[in-house]
Design a protein that fits this description.
Elements (H helix, E strand, L loop, with lengths): L6 H39 L4 H19 L1 H18 L2 H7 L4 H41 L12 E6 L2 E9 L4 E10 L5 E13 L4 E13 L2 E12 L20 H13 L5 H29 L7 H27 L5 H22 L3
Antiparallel strand pairs: 1-2, 2-3, 3-4, 4-5, 5-6
């Protein structure tokens, strides 16, 4: 099959990317208007500066929203302009002049590749930084700051063979109650154990201050005990580890997210699946561009009696069902029912089967 780009390929690519950008601008404009109308009272009440609204919030909101719904935009784009080509008998003309249906996929997949690279780059390296400013703006002028206690009975590994426990932690005062720290040797035997009434973050020293502590140290058969009222110490945990919003995952680029997941695994955190889903989704979402492009092409490449509206309606239904199924399957990973990698890729696997089936039965 000749993959050299021809005039008709450039024509399809221009149609694909042009319609994609047009749909993106149109839908984002509508989303910004509705979002502004919803939050206007909060902006006025909290006296949000106009410059902050425009540049700190909406300038960073636009790329976040664009990537979030890029599969939907791609699908609608393919359905819309391919249906118009079919309605104008352009598809029939191409196939009648010797272009195979397989060859017709080439400019579509090239366009999908450009969109996939664009969304992957934005999602992993640009949007995380933009989300920091957007979320900080929301904290100041829209939502209330997080005021809550973490779960009780906190168990965490902070270094190899080093574990901490707190009966409860307050992120209002940055205080952990009924604190203990245990260190084991490589064979699993206890080397030392610290117990304290509470541990408090000292902002002046940027260290933890342990109060009313008791340290038991075991060196072979020798055992020593140390007591005191206060001890300043450095640990590999910080108050932000306990007061962190779940959406912090969207503020980390690919490398930061990988390091953060490794740290959470080392600490024995029980919500690692949430961040694993975020990591795998950043790879799965660009791949979905190819799947939805193939489905959109096979659905809209023939001239339907019902018209373009019916094909666009069917496309929107399928794309929304894909997004819904992606969110639904992720819950199984969060609950620990299935691995995060499988949960994220199940929608792609299922819709890949649908895409191949539609491609096989499509009139060629």
């Amino acid at each position: 099959m000749d993959l050299k780009l021809r005039i008709v390929d450039y024509y399809i690519i221009r149609k694909f990317l042009g319609t994609f950008v047009y749909a993106l601008v149109l839908i984002i404009s509508i989303a910004v208007i509705f979002d502004f109308a919803e939050k206007l009272d909060d902006f006025i009440e909290k006296e949000a500066p106009l410059r902050a609204i425009l540049f700190d919030y909406y300038l960073n909101f636009i790329p976040y929203f664009a990537v979030l719904f890029s599969p939907l935009f791609t699908f609608i784009t393919v359905i819309f302009f391919t249906s118009k080509m079919a309605y104008n008998t352009e598809i029939i003309a191409l196939l009648s002049n010797g272009m195979s249906f397989n060859r017709l996929l080439w400019p579509y997949f090239l366009s999908a590749l450009l969109i996939a690279i664009f969304t992957f780059t934005l999602n992993n390296f640009v949007i995380p930084h933009a989300n920091i400013e957007r979320l900080e703006f929301e904290e100041l002028y829209y939502r209330n700051n997080p005021v809550r206690y973490t779960d009780r009975d906190i168990h965490m590994q902070i270094l190899p063979n080093v574990y901490i426990y707190m009966e409860s932690y307050s992120n209002l005062q940055d205080v952990g109650y009924k604190f203990s720290l245990e260190e084991f040797n490589d064979s699993g035997q206890l080397k030392s154990k610290m117990m304290a009434d509470y541990i408090k973050w000292d902002t002046a020293l940027s260290k933890w201050s342990v109060r009313n502590y008791y340290i038991r140290t075991i060196d072979g058969i020798e055992e020593t005990i140390e007591k005191g009222r206060r001890l300043d110490t450095t640990l590999t945990i910080f108050p932000s580890d306990f007061a962190r919003r779940e959406n912090i995952k969207s503020t980390m680029n690919m490398h930061e997210l990988n390091r953060f997941i490794n740290q959470q695994k080392l600490q024995g955190a029980d919500n690692v699946e949430v961040y694993m889903i975020e990591r795998y989704s950043r790879y799965a979402m660009p791949f979905s561009t190819f799947i939805l492009t193939l489905i959109g092409l096979t659905l809209s490449s023939r001239k339907a009696k019902e018209g373009i509206g019916a094909q666009i309606g069917a496309g929107i239904f399928l794309s929304f069902s894909y997004i819904f199924f992606m969110q639904f399957s992720a819950q199984f990973a969060i609950n620990g029912s299935i691995p995060a990698l499988l949960a994220v890729w199940i929608p792609n696997i299922l819709y890949s089967i649908i895409a191949v089936f539609l491609f096989v039965i499509a009139p060629k």
